[in-house]
Amino acid sequence: MASTLMPATSPSLQLHSKGKTKLGSCDSNAFLRGQNKNASLKLQPVSRVRMVAAVNVSRFEGISVAPPDPILGVSEAYKADTNEKKLNLGVGAYRTEELQPYVLNVVKKAENLMLERGENKEYLPIEGLAAFNKVTAELLFGADNPILKEQRVATVQSLSGTGSLRLAAALIERYFPGARVLISSPTWGNHKNIFNDARVPWSEYRYYDPKTVGLDFEGMIADIKAAPEGSFILLHGCAHNPTGIDPTPQQWEKIADVIQEKNHIPFFDVAYQGFASGSLDEDASSVRLFAARGMELLVAQSYSKNLGLYAERIGAINVVCLTADAAARVKSQLKRLARPMYSNPPVHGARIVANVVGSPDLFNEWKEEMEMMAGRIKTVRQKLYDSLTSKGNSGKDWSFILKQIGMFSYTGLNKAQSENMTNKWHVYMTKDGRISLAGLSSAKCEYLADAIIDSYYNVS
Ligand code: PGU
């Protein structure tokens, strides 16, 4: 307690230990002038006076309440709602048809293996579990990719997708001062926070065209062209969040052309490998296309969705370099950045991934489970479209729902309409009109369609 450090006979102490004096309003000058004979010379008089003030007034007085997180805050609001019709379509987390969280069978099998082996809990190296780093890069680039044999990829296990993006942002801040990151408009809500906190400047490139409810490809290309040379271009590897709209293979080629022309550095965020098409290889094709051109690039990976390891915080940052030597140097600096941030990553999820991806049997079983999950989302997507089409009587074209891929549907509902979904219908979703179809069951499609139609037609 601060007051125990104070001289008992100090007039300042007596005054402040009783009263409600605010920080800095006491007579600290007496201490500064050395007039208090009981004050220990070793203590800093000014800070001692401040300590007294802290007994009565919180040092955190100046800190205001932060707004709820636009995505994770939705889950908190959902939990607090007691209505039995409530539906959580906010966070992108896969649920079963019974709307329960799902632990993959392959994850349970891998965990059993780990228990049988009696693995220990000692610290991992700063760069993470070697077996994980090997399989994660192989899963992303393809096991036969020459960039792996040539050791041109610096792979560091990090705290899922978010932590991997944050580590890369720290690398950019330190080694590319002033370089800008271009982010799609719109994008996953946390991207801007990540670059803001890392003090990396960012701006947006056009991506979504509300008129066509599709990709604004011309706008995207023009904005990437107009960015200062050597910018980092953040791209969603597949299943763009929140729009569910991905470039076609031809468009990816064109994007790669422009990025190369402008000497930009592609920076992929791959949070949904396997969830867009149901195929791990197909969903990595954008990244592989860039790597095959011999480009240097960054790729953040997450196993939250495709292996359902949300809370295990398992992912990686991969930096593809022109030479093995550059990759080794980059890796050493990523480790240096990680060490004071979180020291080293957690082991549990890394072992699960290493076991599943590294074992042919479990790997094949995983692919089947992923197809099942992606398939269930496609089924509810179709059902929602059918319900909306049969209920809506103005001939509105809802087919964009079928064209979008991945976990989400970007409904086009505005903020007021999205709020109506929650306030009136107890459908929890983000205010940008995004709904997570991974949190929807077939049984709830009709109800959701009613809510969307009411919000769309009756709220402006
Ligand atoms: N990148 C994208 C594009 C994402 O959508 C997400 C998760 C991440 C990275 C990071 O996920 P990690 O769990 O850190 O690997 N987005 C989800 C999950 C909730 C959230 O916002 O973190 C979502 O609902 O958008």
The third-level CATH topology of the largest domain is Aspartate Aminotransferase, domain 2
Identify the CATH class of the largest domain: Alpha Beta
End-to-end separation in angstroms reads: 56 Å
Strand content: 5-15%
Bound molecules: ligand PGU
Helix content: 40-55%
User: What count of domains describes the coordinates?
Assistant: 3
Find the structural class using helix and strand composition.
alpha/beta
Mean pLDDT: 89
The CATH superfamily of the largest domain turns out to be Type I PLP-dependent aspartate aminotransferase-like (Major domain)
Shape: globular
From the alpha carbons, calculate the radius of gyration and give it in angstroms: 27 Å
How is this structure best described in words?
Belongs to the class-I pyridoxal-phosphate-dependent aminotransferase family. This protein folds into three domains: 2-56, no CATH class; 72-102 and 370-458, Aspartate Aminotransferase, domain 1 (Alpha-Beta Complex); 123-358, Aspartate Aminotransferase, domain 2 (3-Layer(aba) Sandwich). The chain starts with 10 loop residues before the first helix and ends with a helix. The chain is globular. Helix 5 runs antiparallel to helix 16. A seven-stranded mixed sheet has the order 2-10-9-8-7-3-4, sandwiched between helices. It has a two-stranded parallel ribbon with strand order 1-12. It is 46% helix and 12% strand. Residues 1-47 have low confidence and may be disordered. It contains 19 helices and 13 strands. The chain is α/β, with parallel strands linked by helices and 460 residues long. Bound molecules: ligand PGU. Ligand PGU binds at residues 71-72, 91-92, 160-162, 188, 190, 236, 241, 269, 271, 302, 304, 310, 315.
